[in-house]
Amino acid sequence: MTKILGFIRGLALIVICYYIGELLSMLVRGFVSASVMGMLVLFVLLQTKVYKATWLDKASDFLLDNLVFFFIPATAGVALIPFIVIKQDALVIIISSVVSSVLVLLVVGLITDKFEKRDERRNNT
Q1: Are 37 and 21 a contacting pair, CB within 8 Å?
Q2: Which residue has the higher pLDDT, 4 or 78?
Q3: What are the angstrom distances between the C-alpha of 96 and each of 21, 71, 83, 100?
Q4: Contacts of 38 (CB under 8 A, 6+ apart)
Q5: pTM
Q6: DSSP letter for each residue of 92-108
């Protein structure tokens, strides 16, 4: 019974943060999305120890374990777009996909490199 209550409490806390983020997003007129604002609210609450990370363990584990299911509707929606609709923009879509993927790989590689060098310096001292 406590496992179920722990899960419900964690999920409720995550949802509350999302809706607070929704309100904050409205205040800034959508400049920052509600989900990002909600994550920032959750981060602040965790850092200030208003929320304990252990309160979110069960709900976050469940959500992360089933993350792939959240992408199915978006993927199916894109797959159902007729090619004739995107035919005129196909080249732009392909180029932007390739460029953005390469940029992500470069940035992640540079950041990882920086962290590894920092860890090597720490271990050598």
Answers
A1: yes
A2: 4
A3: 30, 21, 17, 6
A4: 17, 18, 19, 20, 21, 22
A5: 0.61
A6: HHHHHHHHHHHHHHHHH
